[in-house]
C-alpha cells in the first residue's frame, strides 16, 4: 500500500489508494478516540508495544514492558537498591499525568525523552511513516509509544541528539501526494511505562560512575562496564565497601565561611565531600576507542570522532608560518575524565541547549536545583565608545569590577531556580553552535561534576539579529534522578567576538566536543608551535 | 538594608585581593604561585590536566615566555556547595611580543586552615571554533 512518493501509477490505482487510506484514517481516528491515547494509558500503549515487539521478534512478557534501554529482567541482580535518602530531598513533586502531556518535566530533571509529532500524521500508516522518517534521518532510532492523537501522529525518543536529527528532517520528507511532512519536537516527561524501571536505576549508575573515579583502590577501571544505558554491569565489590575513600578527612571550616545562601537542607548533601581533592587522588582515566563493545551508547555512535582524551595527542597540522605563539603549544581539546561522564555531560549540554534555543526557556526549570545560583557577566572596556551587541546583557551583567554598589551585586546574582529561569527568559533568543563547543570537565567527586563550555552562539532576533557572540559557561552539577544532572551553579560569560581585535580571525586548532574537523585560519597556523 | 551575605563579603575580598594578587605573582615571578595551591589542587591548562602543587607550579613556570602581562576585564564569583567560592576572571594577556590574547580562568577556592586556597583551576584562551 505504501509507495514512495514519485512512483508513478495509473489514475484508478491512485483512487483506490486514496480510498484505502481514508478508511484507514477512519479506523485510526475511531480507535484513538475510544482509547484516549496518551502515554499514560496502559492499554493502548501495551497493544502498541506488543505489536512492535512482535515485529521485532522480541520476547514479550505480559507483566514486563518492552523497555529497550532498561536492564532486562534477566540481568537485574537485586539492582533496585533502596534509594539514597538524600535523593528524596531532591525529588520534585510529581505532577499529575495529564500535565506530562504538556511537555513539562514531571520528575524534576532535565529528562532525556522527547516527543516527536507529525502534524496530521493520522493520514499515514505507522509503518510507512516510520520507514520514511528512518530513510531520511541520519541517525538510527527506536520510536517508543507510537500513537495517534487527534489528527496527529506521535512517538517518543530517548535521546536529545536523535530528537535534534529528527527536527532537522522536518519539511524534507514528502508523502504520496507530494505534500511536505513536518516534524515537531518537544521535550517530554518520561513515557509512563519506562518511568518505573528507569528511575532508581539510573541514579545509581551515575553515582557509581562518579564513585569509581574516586576510588583509588580500584586498579583498572574497565570503561566497557560503564555504559551510559546500562545493559549488564558487573560491579566491583571493592568499590562499594570503601566509600570512606571518597570522603576526605573533615576539615575545620570557620563558621563564618559557610555560605548563607545555601539552605541547611542543601548543605547536608555536601557534608564530607571535598571538591578537588578526589581529583588529585586518582589519575584521569584514559579510555581507548579501540575498546569497542556492544555497550557503546548512541551518543558515541553519533560522534565517532570525539576528541582524544587526556594523554592522547591531537594530530598537529603542518605549519605555514614560522611565528610560534608561546601560550599555545600544549593546547588540547575538550577534556573528560571518563567515557561515561563524557557522555553524560555531552547529552546534558545537548538537552540544555535544545531547550535554551527553543524560544521558551521555561523547560529549564527542572534542570536547576531549588537553591541554584546563576550569574552573568560581560567584559567591561572603558575605551568602548561604540554600542556593542552586548548592551542588552549589560543591565543583567554582574561584572564585579564595574559595580561599586555592593547591594547591586547581590541583586544581579540570581538565586533559586525560578529567578534563574525568569532571568534566562529575559535574555535574547539564541542559536548555539554545538559544533563550536569546547568542554572541560575540571572537577568530579561522587556528588559533584563541574565543567565549563566555551563556544559561540548567534542572536536570532532583535536589533543584533545574526551577530555572533562567544561565551563561556561554567556549570557545577550534582546527579539528579533519571540519569541527568542537576545544576547548582551556573556562570555565564558573554563576549563580543568582533571586539577582540586580534582575535577576530582566530580559529581554534583543536577539534571540539561535537565536531571532528578543526577549522583553522592561516593566522592561527602561524601561532602553532614548530 | 542588612549586611551583605557572608559569602559575598568573602568573595569580594577574594576578588579584590586574592585574584589580582595571583596575576601579579604570575606576571612577576610565577615560580611563586605555589602559595595559592595545595597538594590536592588540580589545574586544567588548555585542556591538559595537572595535579598537585609541584606539577602545577612546574607547568606554569615552564611556560615558554619570558614576559607575561595579564589584564583583567571581568570578574565574578558565586558560592558553591561545601563552602567554596567559584571565582572567574576574564581578560587579556600578552606574552613577550606576541599579540594580545583573551583568556578565561576559573578558580574554585576553599578555606583550609583559615587560608583561602585554590583547589581547582581551569584556564582557557579565548579562541573559538567557527563551523
Based on the model shown, name its key terms.
heterodimer; A: 530 residues; alpha+beta; seven-stranded mixed beta sheet; four-stranded antiparallel beta sheet; 13 strands; 30% helix; disordered N terminus; disordered C terminus; B: 131 residues; six-stranded mixed beta sheet; 2 helices; 6 strands; 25% helix; globular
Descriptive account of the structure:
The complex is a heterodimer of chains A (530) and B (131). Chain A is α+β, with helices and mostly antiparallel strands. Chain A is built from 16 helices and 13 strands. Chain B is an alpha+beta fold. Chain B contains 2 helices and 6 strands; from the N terminus they run αββαββββ. Chains A and B meet through helix 9, helix 10, strand 7, helix 14 and strand 10 of A and helix 1, strand 1, strand 2, strand 3 and strand 4 of B.
Structural class of chain A: alpha+beta
* Cα-to-Cα separation, first versus last residue of chain A: 64 Å
Tell me the overall shape of chain B: globular
What percent strand of chain B?
over 45%
Radius of gyration of chain B: 15 Å
The total strand number of chain B stands at 6
